Predict the structure.
Amino acid sequence: EVRLVESGGGLVQPGGSLRLSCETSGFTFNDYWMTWVRQAPGKGLEWVANIKEDGSEKNYADSVKGRFTISRDIAKNSLYLQMNSLRADDTAVYYCARAGFYGYYCDYWGQGILVTVSS
Amino acid sequence: DIQMTQSPSTLSASVGDRVTITCRASQTISRWLAWYQQKPGKAPKVLIDEASRLQSGVPSRFSGSGSGTEFTLTISSLQPDDFATYYCQHYDAHPFTFGPGTKVDVK
């Protein structure tokens, strides 16, 4: 069974940093691209970043470029999102997702983790 | 960046209705489009990829069509479990943007 479990969310002040983790199981982690997607309260889905199977390629949404860094640890079957210079509009539920076998869509998702940026 | 639009933003329907949601891309994306269903407080669930390929386990009342810039998601006979918000997403070129969503609610 494919499982993705996010952790590391919480309340952080504007300008602060937070690191999200996504622990995976049930599939061969280094065979798949991985993605972060977020959803602000009451809003739609926003694609944030993705990373190639071996970590050699990373892509970001313009809204987070230069502030967020996606990474993965194959030995730990885990995905990460380092978030710096956080702003109020980064407040959202962050989902970790696996890319599909046939393309970059997301076929398995975690339950999501809430990040709140507020003073 | 490729922009995605969806219409309508809200759709009121009854059980048994045929429902169609349209998604448009600001430039051609071939068939690199997925559809997701999301219920309140839950993670999205992929229904269709590559514009028309039904994911395993998804009921056959869901279908997708289109290519280039215009795509549709059709529910042939709406069921009680289908009241939800539906999103399209392209994956032609980074960044892989989502549409704004279409909420299907009870008429």
